[in-house]
Amino acid sequence: MAALKPQGRVWNPFAERMARSEFRDRVRAAARGELEPVDEVKPVDVRNPPPLYEIRWQDIPVTDRDGDRIVHGTALVRMYHSEPTAVPDHFVGHHIHEKLIDVEDVNRKQNAEIRVALSFYRLGESTGWGIDIDTGGV
User: Fold this and answer.
1) What three-state secondary structure class fits 53?
2) Could you report how far apart the first and last alpha carbons of the chain are, in Å?
3) Quick check: helix, strand or coil at residue 103?
4) CB of 72 within 8 A of CB of 63?
5) How many CB atoms lie within 10 A of CB 56?
6) What is d(CA 67, CA 101) in angstroms, rounded to the nearest whole number?
7) What string of DSSP letters covers 3-48?
8) Cα–Cα distance, 124 to 100 (Å, whole number)
9) pTM of the predicted model, to two decimals?
10) Backbone angles phi, psi at 15, to 5 degrees
11) pLDDT range class, residue 136, cuts 50, 70, 90
12) How far is the C-alpha of 56 from the C-alpha of 3, rounded, in Å?
C-alpha cells in the first residue's frame, strides 16, 4: 500500500481494505497463471535479460487532499516481476509503484521505475530472492 500513499492521499478503512484485496487477488491470480494479457499483465522487455513482466492495476479509487479540497480519482499501479528459471514455479515481485500520468515525461518516469525493479532483481539474484531452491520455500 505504500505505493499508493503519497503526501496528501486520504484513506478511509473501507477503501484501503478494498485496494489491498484487489492487490492480493491479482497477485494470487498471477501465481496461478490466470492474468489476461495485456489488461492485467504484459512483458516489459523479454528480449533483454532478465525478462520482466508488469502486473497492472487500473482505476484503483483514491482520494487526495488538495489544499482545502477533497478530490476523488483513480490511480494506476504497476508491479514488476520476473519468473526466474532458477526458481521454477515462482514469480518474484521486484518493485511496485503508482504510475503517474500527470508528469512531464511519463515514459521517462516509468523507465526509472523499471530500473528500480531491475536493481532489485540483481540484488536478489545471488541469494535466489530468499527462496530455498532445494525446497521451493522461503
Assistant:
1) strand
2) 22
3) coil
4) yes
5) 19
6) 21
7) GG--TTEE--HHHHHHHHHHHHHHHHHHHTT-PPBTTTEEES-SSS
8) 27
9) 0.88
10) -65, -40
11) low
12) 13
Cross-strand bridge partners of residue 82:
92
Q: Is the dihedral of CA 126, 133, 41, 97 positive or negative?
A: negative
Top pLDDT among 138 and 57 is at 57
Residue with cell 521505475: 113
Evaluate if residue 123 carries a pLDDT over 70.
Answer: yes
C-alpha cell, 32: 496461478
Per residue in 28-84, pLDDT tens? 999 888 999 999 999 998 777 888 999 999 999 999 998 899 999 999 999 999 988
Say how far apart CA 135 and CA 113 lie, in whole Å.
32
- 20 contacts: CB under 8 Å, gap ≥ 6: 1
79, 2 Cβ separation under 8 angstroms: no
Torsion of the alpha carbons at 4, 7, 13 and 18, rounded to the nearest 10: -20
Sign, Cα dihedral of 9, 77, 115, 80? positive
pLDDT on residue 110: 94
Question: In the structure grid, which three cell numbers stand for residue 12, read together?
Answer: 478511509
